[in-house]
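Lecture notes, part 5. Sequence design as translation. It can be helpful to think of inverse folding as translation between two languages: the language of shapes and the language of residues. The source text, in structure tokens, appears below.
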């Protein structure tokens, strides 16, 4: 998630979680422990580990580590046999973004893929996950395991499953660069989309999907703005003790507790397109050099990814043309 949009409020939000608990709207979770991650999730966990390793150097936009992360994502898509859209696999851009020292021009690259649908072939669900993080700051690598190697790994898992079971809507995967610098890649995608914006039925954005152990919830933001989508997800249920929770998107949600513009889905929202954002709540390692692979409980991450997959299925099957 974007440092500038959320970091200023992290401390207050962490202390407010307990006070806000009574206002949450969530599917009740059974009192069972998360199952042990099985071999079925081996690639999911491997993707998370590789993308958040020290040799990725925090995946900053325009830095060698970011280039290595991009090359890895491309290699995974090629290995899965997921095609590139007609405009090509890579979508380069140059935009002015934010740093602690002030504005700076960044050269970034989005990675794109497409899987044709079987029913609504001319309507697209755009799955987004940003692969950049904040790089090296104050001499320390910020590996960004949860933010957002996890969302990339979740999206790659969905891509693998859709190669085995074709979706009803056509699906574009956009692995976006420059989120931490001001949602740059998402803004460019919307400004120069691979398909007409009018054909985009939904943006489904994954950002921080690994660390649900804070409250055992995977939050869904955007049903306040898109109320017809909520009934499609209310029957998704729970997985390994992790459940969906709806909110952080109403006028009553303020500051860091409002996620409507907290990540790449904001670019789609500003363009008037339907969106949903799936992600976990704050944890003490957010935007710190301690957001490492070894902090992730594989079983909890696997459960959240399974919920993400079932949420996609419900939306794909339930949305009209």
């Amino acid at each position: 998630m974007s440092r500038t949009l959320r970091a200023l409020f992290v401390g207050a939000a962490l202390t407010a979680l307990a006070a806000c608990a009574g206002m949450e709207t969530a599917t009740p979770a059974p009192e069972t422990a998360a199952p042990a991650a099985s071999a079925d999730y081996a690639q999911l966990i491997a993707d998370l580990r590789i993308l958040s390793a020290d040799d990725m150097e925090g995946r900053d936009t325009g830095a060698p580590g970011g280039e290595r992360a991009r090359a890895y994502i491309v290699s995974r898509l090629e290995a899965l046999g997921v095609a590139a859209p007609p405009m090509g696999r890579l979508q380069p851009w140059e935009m002015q973004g934010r740093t602690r020292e002030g504005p700076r021009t960044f050269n970034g690259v989005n990675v794109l893929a497409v899987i044709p649908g079987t029913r609504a072939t001319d309507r697209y669900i755009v799955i987004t996950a940003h692969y950049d993080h904040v790089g090296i700051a104050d001499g320390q690598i910020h590996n960004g395991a949860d933010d957002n190697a996890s969302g990339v790994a979740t999206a790659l898992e969905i891509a693998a499953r859709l190669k085995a079971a074709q979706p009803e809507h056509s699906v574009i995967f956009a692995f976006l660069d420059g989120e931490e610098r001001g949602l740059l890649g998402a803004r460019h995608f919307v400004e120069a989309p691979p398909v007409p914006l009018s054909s985009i039925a939904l943006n489904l954005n994954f950002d921080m999907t690994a660390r649900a152990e804070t409250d055992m919830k995977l939050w869904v933001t955007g049903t306040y703005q898109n109320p017809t989508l909520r009934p499609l997800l209310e029957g998704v249920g729970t997985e390994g003790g992790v459940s969906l929770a709806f909110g952080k998107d109403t006028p009553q949600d303020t500051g860091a507790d409002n996620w409507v513009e907290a990540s790449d889905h904001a670019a789609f929202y500003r363009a008037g397109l339907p969106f949903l954002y799936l992600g976990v709540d704050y944890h003490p390692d957010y935007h710190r050099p301690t957001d490492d692979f070894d902090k992730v409980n594989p079983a909890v991450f696997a459960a959240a990814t399974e919920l993400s997959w079932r949420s996609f299925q419900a939306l794909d099957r339930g949305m009209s043309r």
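The translated text above is only one of many valid answers, since several sequences can fold into similar shapes. The CA atoms of residues 154 and 305 lie 6 Å apart.
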